[in-house]
Specification:
Organism: Caulobacter vibrioides OR37
Shape: globular
Low-confidence stretches: 11-32, 34-38
CATH superfamily of the largest domain: Glycogen Phosphorylase B
Number of helices: 14
CATH topology of the largest domain: Rossmann fold
Strand order of the largest sheet: 2-1-3-4-5-6
Protein name: Glycosyltransferase
Oligomer: single chain
Largest sheet: 6 strands, parallel
Pfam families: GT4-conflict (PF20706)
Distance between the termini: 45 Å
CATH architecture of the largest domain: 3-Layer(aba) Sandwich
Helix content: 25-40%
Order of helices and strands: HHHEHEEHEEHEEHHEHEHEHEEEEHHH
């Protein structure tokens, strides 16, 4: 049925598709008037794609000033382009969506006469709102690449009109690219372009900085409640850790680094109730810079994630880059860089998406096998030699995110700027 709807949608004239989408607008907004719809249709006409050739500079639009995964992704891309020798610019949209601006932009915005390539590190709903707010001015005369991330097998059908605004689309993983390709029109190429993790620093462990005991095996689980607790699924991680800690008898501590607790007080209260009185589990809600988050990860022995699905899996990739063994659900984007020499993949069953209508409304995702996770985590907690062997193997991980030459070669192929 979905494929038939897509086929019917694509046979509609482009103006009709645009008008239908613009009239629907973003969730939570009232239906648009005919005048508003026509005005926005004119915006789309002015920024219609002309498949301009790539040229410098490269401008990365995103949440550069915000401390969260989306912000870190935009910052990494900008640093990667600079490392490739490309003139790099940045446009920070953090304040536009209400994110606190806590980091200074590393790169300047483009000057009035600079065109080149624009890479919008924002998903289609935010892209559409930004285009409306700016009347499409930043897109005119620039080659526009959308850098979009999605966590399920099928991207939302209401993202389709955003393809009218881009010349091509990049995604942080092959998994996400496959999902986007299913709804992309034939003219729009969709390519996987993972983040350049190799640029991240490798700080030394500093347990004293975070008041972590030296005589325990420390497991780290970190998640942003803005990405929904249903998808991040920390509850399965808590249960698996408790079972593993009891089975291993090893002195261990699970640190749960939570972002977005202030925006989701009920969820946070439920987590606090689940771990109340348990000295082996600690919730941490401190606001950490990217450098301090890396230092916290470096201070752990194991990084755990029993997520239901990931569009990239930034924490797990950062953990591998920092030499940490990882244990995670064996489905979605993270399997692309979690190799068996340094990581443990947890068995799973695919189940229908349920209970997360705010963002993920249909499709399926993984339910990690908590017994399998507990068994594997038990060995990781109790077998110091094996854990050390897993850690040592991280240095041999050849994924493009961890290999400078591979990432630069990929980027030059995707963005041939002389």
């Amino acid at each position: 049925m979905k494929s038939q709807l897509l086929a019917l949608w694509r046979r509609l004239p482009a103006p009709a598709r645009r008008a239908a989408h613009l009239t629907a607008a973003a969730p939570g907004l009232a239906a648009r008037t005919c005048a508003e719809a026509l005005s926005e249709a004119r915006i789309h006409w002015r920024v219609r794609r002309r498949d301009l050739a790539p040229a410098p500079p490269v401008t990365v639009v995103g949440f550069h000033g915000a401390v969260h995964g989306l912000g870190e992704g935009a910052r990494m891309l900008a640093r990667g382009f600079a490392d490739a020798g490309l003139a790099t610019r940045a446009v920070d949209l953090s304040a536009d969506v209400g994110f606190p601006v806590t980091l200074e932009a590393r790169f300047p915005p483009p000057s009035a006469d600079e065109k080149g390539v624009l890479i919008s590190h924002i998903n289609p709903p935010e892209l559409m709102r930004w285009v409306r707010a700016t009347q499409g001015r930043p897109l005119r005369g620039r080659r526009h690449i959308g850098y979009w991330a999605w966590e399920l097998e099928d991207a939302p059908i209401d993202w389709i009109p955003a393809f009218d605004l881009v010349d091509e689309v990049w995604a942080p993983s092959a998994f996400a690219a496959d999902a986007l390709r299913k709804i992309a029109p034939p003219r729009v190429k969709v390519s996987p372009a993972p983040y350049p993790l190799y640029l991240n620093p490798r700080p030394a462990a500093d347990r004293a900085r975070f008041d972590l005991p030296e005589d325990r095996v420390v497991a780290l689980m970190a998640f942003d409640l803005r990405s929904t607790d249903q998808r991040k699924n920390p509850y399965a991680g808590l249960r698996a850790f408790r079972a593993a800690q009891a089975a291993s008898g090893a002195p261990a501590l699970l640190v749960c680094k939570v972002v977005g607790a202030d925006l989701h007080p009920q969820t946070m209260a439920a987590l606090e109730a689940l771990v109340a009185g348990d000295p082996t589990i600690r919730l941490m809600t401190d606001s950490l810079s990217a450098e301090d988050m890396a230092r916290l990860t470096a201070s752990a022995d194991i990084v755990l994630s029993l997520h239901r699905s990931e569009g990239y899996g930034l924490l797990l990739a950062e953990a591998i880059w920092l030499g940490k063994p990882t244990l995670a659900t064996g489905w979605s984007s993270n399997v692309e860089f979690m190799d068996p020499a340094s990581s443990q993949l947890v068995d799973y069953a695919l189940i229908p998406v349920d209970g997360d209508g705010a963002i993920y409304r249909a499709g399926r995702w993984a339910a990690a096998d908590e017994d399998d996770a507990a068994r594997k985590l038990t060995r990781m907690l109790s077998d110091d030699a094996w854990r050390a062997a897993l850690a040592a193997a991280t240095t041999r991980n050849g994924h493009v995110s961890f290999n400078r030459q591979a990432w630069l070669s990929m980027t030059r192929a995707l963005l041939p700027i002389s």
